[in-house]
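Feature request disguised as a bug: please show the residue count (152) next to Exonuclease domain-containing protein in the output. Example input:
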Amino acid sequence: MYESNYGLRNNFDFSSEVAHFNNDLEPIIIIFDIETGGFEKTDDTLQIAAKSICEKYEFSIYIQPTKSITEEASLVNKLYFDNGNLEYDGKQVITVSLEEALSSFYDFLCLFKRKCVLIAHNCEAFDGPRLVAAIHKTQMNIPEEIKKAKTN
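Example output, currently without the count:
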């Protein structure tokens, strides 16, 4: 069952086993969105948000920036980095490390106990490559099922 702020209360164990899914169930569609500190592939991932279509569960987690956010990105996503704090629309938000955010996102996807199809408005050109880059940056152990998935 989904819980509000699930990603923020989790105890993170990066050695956890790969989840087992019921392959008899239809895959669930998850819409996701990545917000970044700029438009370059090397810019920080600042937020991962997702929502399941049929079960209406939501996930959102903010990531502590490691460098400044471009003015252009802030105009689009309303995220600002001020005095070491990430702010959304002028209000400070709780942040975690990129590793913790990705682990929480994975845990959120595992709650459905079935395969998830991730879609995004601009998945091929923006969100997808940035999610994959974040996973590679943290050197997370990627399950074989995910490695075999197509990105388009």
